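check this one:
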Amino acid sequence: MELRHLRYFIAVAEELHFSKAAERLHIAQPPLSQQIQQLEAELGVELFHRKTKRQVQLTEAGKVFLNEAYQLLLQLETAVTLTQRIGRGETGQLKIGFTSLVIYDLLPLILRQFREQFLEVELVLLELTTSQQEQALRDSLIHVGFGHPPLEDDTLSYQCIHQETLVVALSSTHSLAQKEYICVRSLLSEPLIVFPRYLAPGLYDRIMSLFQQENFKPHITQEAIQMQTIIGLVSAGMGVAITPSSLQNLQRSGVVYRPLLAEIPVIETAVIWQQSRLTPIVENFLQLTQKFI
């Protein structure tokens, strides 16, 4: 049995007339009659009562088969449509890793635009450090990530899509808060709040390079894992922090941000993926991120 047998049968069942069905199918009437006879022979039942040579009526078995034929063709159409949509990356699931830093600026913009274009793609977000994202990509736990170069794994592909500088976060009541710019040497005796190096070694080393340029070690008094926690401690007057400029979007009462008067290293954010495991959804996502370069 082939799909054409079902389509021929449906046409005859709807028209109840071989000539009209043949005209509708753009074939001659004798071949159509032969195809229906072959179908009946294969099923072992009559599907039509022949009232005349051309006009027919459905048997009880024919009525049942017609309903099932509709369902089969509908299921086939659904399967074809779904397969095509998956092939175009319009439906499915996309698992995205990200560091806490990108949630304050870049990632919300990208996700908003992607969701507007691909409503049927389910987004699953996982907050991971850059090194954790590299492992997750190798283990196929995520499809794409947002981290901060340099990467440890040179087999992964990445594209830098955003750059920012460093600023000082300090209490609004701090004496340095009145200055328009802050030089690094003025932070010599200030208690510094940082995140542990293992969370983002590239970002941590860039922050520390500011003090290395001035040939002194910072006075680190507190470590915190989350950027929100660091800013909360600054608000409480526990110290100052040097953060990427995107954290200025995290408005916190009692905290001000001031630019540094120094040769400031650039903080890069990159989209990271496994080239050998590209899918249409990932390709669509990567193409969209290019708009933000």
Observations:
- The chain has nine helices and twelve strands.
- The chain has a mean pLDDT of 92.
- The two ends are 55 Å apart (CA to CA).
